[in-house]
Every structure is written in structure tokens, then in C-alpha cells.
Design brief:
This protein has 388 residues and is of the alpha+beta class. The chain has 2 domains: 9-73 and 207-387, Beta-lactamase; 79-182, no CATH class. Helices cover 33% and strands 13% of the residues. The protein has 14 helices and 12 strands. The strands form 3 sheets. It has a 7-stranded antiparallel β-sheet, with helices on both faces. Strands 4-6-5 form a 3-stranded antiparallel β-sheet. A two-stranded antiparallel sheet has the order 7-8. The protein is globular, with a radius of gyration of 19 Å. The two termini are 31 Å apart. The model has no long low-confidence stretch (mean pLDDT 94).
Amino acid sequence: MSAHAPHTQGHCDARFAAVRTAFEENFRDRQELGAAVTVVHHGEPVVDLWGGWADAARTRPWERETLVNVWSTSKGPTALCAHILADRGLLDFDAPVAAYWPEFAAAGKESVLVRHLLSHRAGLSGLREPHTLAELCDWELTVGRLAAQEPWWEPGTRSGYHALTYGFLVGEVVRRVSGLLPGAFLEREVTVPLGIDFTIGLPEKEAVRAAELVRAPASTTSEQAAVFARLTPAALAALTNPLVGAAEANTAWWRAAEIPAANGHGTARAIAALYGIFARHGRHGSRQVLSPEAAERVREGQGRCRDLVLGAGFEHETEIGLGLWLSGPNGSYGPNPTAFGHDGFGGSCGLADPEAGVSLGYVMNRMGPHIADDPRKTALVDALYSAL
């Protein structure tokens, strides 16, 4: 099985055969274990493929309804909650966060705007004091510490990837405005009405469908030391406080928690549908989730810069909109520089390109060593645009 692509199930329109080829090559050439990819073009699913194994022991085939933790690809649906509230006139992205969350004004943060939270510019990339895995599962404790904390840098001036804190920051604003945590809000407003198979966290009854995440190949001690030597305190806090990986994501406590930046669970079909809300200007079938203006706003660029957290790993500047990353001249989400999306730790991806009328969802369980732009994802994106 390791030397050959497994039998791929699902369907792929002939025009998009290049995507099927790339998907199968991921198994043959790029050590894929189990995965799925979905492409929606002008509202129609043109690719919906899955294959491989849902567990490391290769005893459970990846099925049509297999779910998997998608790490930071969860940030797109979390941002969607804020955009829905803004579209309804209940949330102003240019208002101070403290207008909705008064405790947040502590430690000089009274001028931090909601848009700074959405674009990773709040200066709260990670917690300053040690934060355990158990504490990460405590919503009140985590948001309380963030509200009291002094920023790592001047908010609004630069982006610094808020790897885990993003979901608590945006999520607490969603809670203050709507009365619901983002998982419940997304369920009520989007996923249940539209039949989208995605949750923040994972209900216990759905655990039987969950794929087992397999950790990325271990780096050598010298490679790890070189990477960590380049990290600033703000970056170390973002990426290691606390340190989480595949082993944690496979546990019942992780799935039971509300960690909106990192523990969304879904199918590729669900990711394509959620990112497609932005790609199709907010319309899902006959139901409009966002107005065209609100859907467009997610890619309102906040300025290119060398990200203060991911800069050690990226050789180029990047730009974040109001919740998602722009493809830009680097082409992370295809050749359209204003296409946008979000990658998940280890490989997964959601992509939206309104000009092409396309969205893509890619999920997998064997994690690669990349925070973004995994070669398997890049191969699928390149294949998609070659077909277009």
C-alpha cells in the first residue's frame, strides 16, 4: 500500500481530472495515509474524492463520512461567525474590543480594535504565563488571562500569528455579542440549517467517524534547536504555550473542548462548503448566509509584512485579511492574488476564489512538518487551477 496509490472513491468531473491525478500522486509520492478533497465550482461539487486509511494501523478505510481534526483550517469558520454578526449590524470591526468585552481594556488594550483580533494584529499571539493543556480547555480562565495580558507588540502595527489564542479572542467577542460560544453559534446559524458536517470540537457520539491523526516526522535535535533559536518570545508563546500535536488531538478531552482556532472537525466536503460561503459571495444554494458586501470583506487586506510569529519559517512577506490569508504574490491559494484561505497545521486547507467561483477543502490524517503550504495541498491547488 505504501508504494501504490489506494483505490480512490468518489467522483471527479472529467474537466478536473488533474485534481484526481494529484490526489492519487499524494498517496504514491508524498506519503499520504488517508485524505479527502472536495472542489465546488459555481455552486456545484465537481470533485469529491477520498481514499486511504483512517488510522495508523491501516485497519479502517477512509470513508465518505470520515471526519478529522483540521487544526487552523478551523479559523475560517470561526471568522465566519464574526462576519455574520457584523453583517447583521451587531458587531463593528472598527470598534474597540472593549466596547463588547470591557475587561479586555486592561494593560493598555483599550484601543485594540475588533479588526486587530481578526487579522492577528492584537499583539496577543500567546499567553505570557505558562498555560497547561487542562487550562486551555477552561474557556473562562483562558479568556480571562488574555483580557488581563499586556500585548507582546504594539497592536495594529504588524501581524503575528495567533495560533491558539485567535479562537478565544474572536470567540469571546462572538459570545459577548450573541450569547453563544462560536461552536454553538456556528451550529445554530450555519452548519445545521445547511447540513454542513463540521463542528468545533467533536460530540462523543461522532467519535467513531473520526480519523486518527498521525504526527509529523520528527526533526533532528539540531534542526529543532535551529528553529527554536530563531523564535522570539511572542512566537514561542504562540507555538509552544501549551505545546499540542497529534497525540493531544486524538484524545477525548481535546474533542470535548471548545478551541475554535484549532479543534474544528469536519469532512473535505464541509470545508469546501464553509469556505464556499465566501467564494460564492455568501450564497449557499438558495440561502444567503452573508450579503455580497460582507462576504467580500473577509479579504480586506490589512497590510503585507513579515509575520512576527511565522517569519522564522517563511522567507516572504504575507498578508492577512479579516480572518483569512490572501494568496498574494506568493500564490499560496492559487494565481489570483486576491484568492484567500487558511491552512491547518500538518496539511489541511480551505480555499476560496470568488473570481473563479471556486472553493476547495482538503483534509488528511498524516501530518506533515509544515504549518502552511504543505506539498500535498500545493499539488492539489496547482492541479485545480490547471483545470480552470
